[in-house]
Amino acid sequence: MYWGEVMACHMGRGVMEEEAWRKGPWTSEEDKLLVEYVRLHGEGRWNSVSRLAGLKRNGKSCRLRWVNYLRPDLKRGQITPQEESIILELHARWGNRWSTIARSLPGRTDNEIKNYWRTHFKKKAKSPSDAAEKARNRLLRKQQFQQQQQQQLQQQQHQAQQQQLQFNFDMKGIMALLEDNTHRAPYASQSRQEMVNMQQNSTEEQGFLYSMLNGHPSAQDTSADEILWDGLWNMDDVHGNSNVHSAASKVGLYSLVAPFC
DNA sequence: AACGGTCACAACCGCAAGCAC
DNA sequence: CGTGCTTGCGGTTGTGACCGT
After folding, report:
1. Which SUPFAM superfamilies does this one have (predicted)?
2. Which of A41, A47, A122, A183 has its CA 20 to 30 A from that of A235?
């Protein structure tokens, strides 16, 4: 029992120590304190949370709570089939590097993906039918990528027209994002630096996915093609063709919005 | 209704890397 | 260069909900 543990922690020692951190489920009051702390001081310096926010939680616990539950950019709800296929693909590539996998799924946490994998795939992994399913999914995505490459070629041929189109899409995205931000009022004051960081992360994600789909061994490979692919990826998102990466596109658009904030 | 199994999720723990001093 | 602190990561555990028997 959580509370039993807490009480034992408090009563087991003759003298109440300052480090008698609270454990177990977070209360809404604690959540409020933590959110307020992050709003005022930003992420990081977790060990000072207890002192500055009056929380009887250690830094690790605070960080975990924030990262896995309170962060405003978290995506709620079930893992979609598209996300599932990405998880399968990335797990096949990276193994249990959950944080790496999570970086390619904006709004999802490593903990969430880890839990999902354990409950959905760990037991099924040995099943041959699932292996066939995975192979089929891989083939499908490869075909999708080839289609997109063709589309990319056409784009290059009509570059001037596409640039105009891109501008229109970006403006739509900015307007949608601004509207979205007004609906997230408590976090609308997010700093520009945070947005820049988010954009950097987003670029890494897209870079990785590109290299993955293109068969490049290293996620760090950067090329003109990658940049083009980034644009293509975002365009699909703005078109609304992909629910999976809508969060990624939002994050990407932060770079466009930041100068206006 | 009671029980056991499974699932989904939150949270904790130990370890290691990064960093400042 | 060594040390201590902070942070991040992956593994594991605990708990409640749900479902079938």
Report:
1. Homeodomain-like (SSF46689)
2. A183
Name the closest nucleotide to A44, judged by C1' and CA: C7
A173 residue type, one letter: G
Q: How far is the CA of A54 from the C1' of C1 (A)?
A: 38
CA A139 – CA A191 distance, rounded (Å): 41
Summarised one tens digit per residue, pLDDT across range A220-255 is 333 333 333 333 233 333 333 333 333 333 333 333
**Residue closest to A106 by CA, chosen among A80, A81, A82, A73:** A73
Q: Are A229 and A210 in contact (CB under 8 A)?
A: yes
| Angstrom distance (rounded) from CA A63 to CA A229 | 34
* Among A171, A145, A144, A166, CA closest to A155: A166
Residue A75 contacts by C-beta under 8 Å, 6 or more apart in sequence? Answer: A106, A107, A108, A247
pTM here?
A: 0.54
| C3 C1' to A127 CA distance, Å | 50
Query: In chain A, what are the helix, strand and coil shares in percent, each to the nearest 5?
Result: 70, 0, 30
Distance separating alpha carbons of residues A261 and A257, to the nearest angstrom = 7
Q: Are A202 and A106 in contact (CB under 8 A)?
A: yes
